[in-house]
Records
---
Amino acid sequence: MSAPCRVAVIGVTGYAGFELARLLLRHPQIEKPTFFLREGNANVRCLTELFPQLRGWGDAPCRQLSVEAVATSGAEVVFLSTPHEASLELVPKLLAANSALRVVDLSGAFRFRAPETFATWYKLPAPDAKTLAQAVYGLPELYAEALPNARIVGNPGCYPTSVILGLKPL
């Protein structure tokens, strides 16, 4: 059995972040995750202060969000449960600050390979080519070979997954 993975989570206060916290706190191969919060929650020291229903699930420390704090936290993997605008800003900075860090982005920021497709759908400037080249769409049925070495995993959404998997045999 491999050593437990050290994980950081950014953006835990929304629904997806909360559900992610629930999964990580119970996962046998995850070492105590650290949750990073924005300024509005500066006094929160443990996730149970925000979500009392997580009491008894294990230690859930919270820290103030900064790229440096995440990069030096000892985390091997960072989950971003942030809006795509925040992910677009954070991911390049996190990768530059820690060359060993891997990122799983739950937003749509790194789901598209072509910058033009991203710009068309999100009406925002696309991620830079260097960062985008490190991203793999997190659908193992299609990209199982590339996922283990990906620096960025663009987590697929439920609607695209259902359509893509249905069309794959065609």
---
Amino acid sequence: MSEHNLWTMLRNGLGHRGHLVRLEFNPTPGIPDVSYCLKGVEGFIELKHAHEFPARSTTAVFGNQGLRDDQIAWIHTRTRHGGRVRIIAQVDDQIYLIPGSYCRQFNEMNGHALAKSSAYYAQLPLCKIEWNNLYSSLRN
């Protein structure tokens, strides 16, 4: 799977419940990949994908392939002012919903830290109840 496939899965799984838009243009450096509105709750989602976990459990999953400095700055500023930003990270067949408040730590998280900081976790493919749980987690 890829980041594009992650977007497609998200759009197909949640799109009928609200309005999700992939931001293909970049008006401001660091803006996340997706804007959403789910029953009056608006926010942004940054999508990250890794094919597999590192061989050593203490190694960062995303490292320098994670959030760029401008993304960290944008997410940190938005969340500091009360905005809703989430990072949906997929590693192999696992999905993590990470609150944007963890943006500064995200790149250094190993698998255990990803799981510990997640507001929601599931394995693919997501069934109906898991889509409901992800939907609720994005609105909280």
